[in-house]
UniProtKB/TrEMBL annotation:
This is Pentatricopeptide repeat-containing protein. NCBIfam families: PPR. One of its GO terms (biological process) is plant organ development. It comes from the Eukaryota. It comes from Triticum turgidum subsp. durum (Durum wheat).
Length: 308
């Protein structure tokens, strides 16, 4: 578009910035930000929201806030974006402060606003505060609860290990829970090692989406973590019979203007030996209790597969 002298509009800028966010291309995103300023789109809701998202994802919250300050604040769009940015980094007090400013300025909130609020409480471990928001958002603010709000509430209780309350919340829903809701609870069961509830949740998931590989992978991981090898073998056999396999996750990072990509059990990177040696060094030199259980298991698995 630049070479052909085609005018770049707000939708093109927004799409390009979102792509930079997804691929962790902060350097290129900053260049596009410069074009945004030059083109006069910095206050556009679509563009400012994408800028906030990009900087938040890179944990550069100061720049995210600068983009928010330049946005048109009469709409909930930029407010929601900056609230999600702070929520993802566990800064619940900042999110609540922004919400208070919205109310003071009489900016209309929407269902997305409350997803951000409950998410921030979930990530910060503020169970009582998040529960209060969930219970009063319809009566106090006139926002009916949707499926995503229930999913956030289940994540709120699940992260705190209150699995009984999470299950009670599902049972209280006025509509049938979807796969997202069940998967959220299954993830919490995995973290806290509740195999009994996990089996029940998995039965709902397998009925709703019998070809969803994530359910089988989570169950298999839980069984192996508890030493239930025969049950793990049954799950893996069922996956094989259905022709399912684990879809490897990919990660990207940019170092000295070069993008490096990695996937699970990767051995293709030219500096892979140094990478695994560094991982091994980190594991030996830092207390294991400081490393999240899931991350530790994944790293140990990687090192084992690589031969260390």
């Amino acid at each position: 578009m630049q070479l052909e002298n085609i005018r770049t509009d707000e939708y093109a800028f927004s799409a390009a910035l979102r792509s930079c966010s997804d691929l962790a291309l902060l350097r290129l995103g900053r260049q596009i930000h410069g074009l945004v300023i030059h083109s006069g789109f910095a206050s556009n809701n679509f563009v400012s929201s994408s800028l906030i998202f990009m900087y938040s994802k890179s944990a550069i919250l100061d720049d995210a806030m600068k983009s928010f300050e330049e946005a048109d604040k009469t709409s909930s769009v930029p407010w929601n974006s900056i609230m999600f940015g702070y929520a993802q980094h566990g800064q619940a007090q900042a999110v609540c402060s922004l919400f208070d400013q919205m109310l003071e300025l009489k900016v209309p909130s929407d269902h997305i606003t409350f997803v951000g609020l409950i998410t921030s409480c979930s990530h910060a471990g503020l169970v009582d505060e998040g529960s209060e928001i969930l219970n009063t958002m319809e009566s106090r603010y006139g926002i009916p609860l949707r499926m995503e709000h229930y999913a956030c509430g289940i994540d709120l209780f699940g992260r705190a290990g209150q699995l009984d309350k999470a299950k009670e919340l599902i049972d209280s829903m006025p509509f049938e829970p979807d796969a997202m809701v069940w998967m959220t609870l299954l993830g919490a069961c995995r973290i806290h090692g509740n195999m009994e509830l996990a089996s029940d949740v998995a039965s709902h998931l397998l009925e709703a989406e019998p070809r969803q590989h994530s359910t089988y992978v989570l169950l298999s991981s839980m069984y192996s973590g508890l030493g239930m090898w025969s049950d793990r073998a049954i799950v893996q056999k069922e996956m094989k019979n259905k022709g399912l396999s684990k879809v490897p996750g990919w990660s990207w990072t940019e170092v000295k203007n070069e993008v490096h990509s990695f996937n699970s059990e990767d051995g293709a990177h030219p500096r892979m030996e140094e990478i695994y040696e560094t991982l091994s060094l980190l594991l030996h030199n830092f207390p294991m209790q400081l490393v999240h259980e899931e991350t530790t298991g994944a790293i140990n698995c990687e090192l084992s597969n690589y031969g260390h």
